[in-house]
Amino acid sequence: MRCVIAQYPFELTKAGVLASMKGVRPELVTGASVTIGRRRYPVKQVGQVITRQDPRDFTTREVTRTMTRLGFTCHDRPEVAPVDAGGAIRSGPRQPRRPAPAP
């Protein structure tokens, strides 16, 4: 599929994007993201890998539109971790600490 990102034309395919992103570790998702395989990548990271351009040269909208047209699932916001009333993330009930046995 022909697309234009940052005023440069690219010929991209879904298989080509999958191959380009293979072995790339996802950065922390703080905004728009795209699911490629079983991983969620920030849109700017995907754009940087597939275009080899600086992320400041293109918009998230350009990359999101292209990824959607190729059949990838795009997300507007990152997933939210559950937070309790105190603001701390809990993984389970707390167990009291036991003193170490005397020697």
Question: Which consecutive residue ranges, at least 5 long each, have pLDDT under 50?
Answer: none
Classification by helices and strands? alpha+beta
Strand order of the largest sheet: 4-3-5
Treating each run of at least 4 consecutive H or I residues as one helix, how many helices? 3
Written as H for each helix and E for each strand, in order along the chain, the element string is EEHEEHHE
| N-to-C span | 72 Å
* Helix proportion range: 25-40%
Main sheet summary:
3 strands, antiparallel
What's the count of strands? 5
Describe this structure in words.
InterPro entries: SCO5918-like. With 103 residues, this protein is of the alpha+beta class. It has one domain (2-75). Helices cover 27% and strands 18% of the residues. The strands form two sheets. A three-stranded antiparallel sheet has the order 4-3-5.
Please describe the topology of this protein:
Layout: E1 2-5, E2 8-11, H1 14-21, E3 33-36, E4 39-42, H2 43-51, H3 60-70, E5 73-75
Antiparallel strand pairs: 1-2, 3-4, 3-5
Brief descriptors of the model:
103 residues, 3-stranded antiparallel sheet, two-stranded antiparallel sheet, 27% helix, 18% strand
Q: Can I get a quick summary?
A:
With 103 residues, this protein is of the alpha+beta class. It is built from 3 helices and 5 strands.
